[in-house]
Specification:
With 160 residues, this protein is mainly alpha-helical. 81% of the residues lie in helices and 0% in strands. It has a single domain, classed as MFS general substrate transporter like domains (Growth Hormone, Chain: A, Up-down Bundle).
């Protein structure tokens, strides 16, 4: 979605588009360093919930922005959320998997992360069909429903 917004809404140059990806990376890097220094959440199940909120709010704000510099700020916020999910989920998988199956569990996780790009196909269709911002809302709504329903329905996950 970021390339479409850069072209259609913000009318950016190639260099400005590069700064947009850089803003996302700045948020990710800052959070990764913070998690490394502090150890992250004690309750690792809060990581995906915090990620969903921060990433979702940042992406929605980015989708509403029509100003380049505001978009950069919202992309930093969006980037802040990403490591919260990744570090928490990897830690949960490693802590709660039988040692004999850990390699297989992590392989399935890696496959699932690599398959996220399959969502670009319906995302592209939605962009063409319903427009930019409604596609952002559909994407965030889907992600929030997955994270929050799993968190709400699993006592074991909430205790993790």
């Amino acid at each position: 979605m970021i390339p479409v917004y850069a072209r259609d809404v913000l009318n950016t140059s190639e260099v400005q588009f590069g700064w947009m990806w850089g803003a996302l990376a700045i948020g990710q890097g800052a959070t990764a360093v913070t998690i490394g220094a502090t150890g992250g959440f004690r309750n690792k199940a809060l990581g995906p919930v915090a990620e969903a909120l921060i990433f979702g709010i940042g992406l929605i704000a980015f989708g509403l922005s029509e100003t380049y510099w505001l978009s950069l700020i919202f992309l930093v916020i969006t980037g802040i959320g990403i490591p919260l999910f990744i570090t928490s989920v990897i830690t949960l998988l490693q802590d709660h998997s039988e040692p004999a199956y850990l390699g297989r569990v992590m392989a399935v996780y890696a496959i699932s992360v690599q398959s996220l790009s399959a969502g670009w196909l319906p995302g592209g269709f939605l962009l063409d069909t319903i427009g930019n911002f409604p596609t952002v809302l559909v994407s965030i709504g889907g992600a929030w429903s997955i994270v929050f329903l799993n968190y709400a329905s699993s006592k074991e996950l909430r205790r993790a």
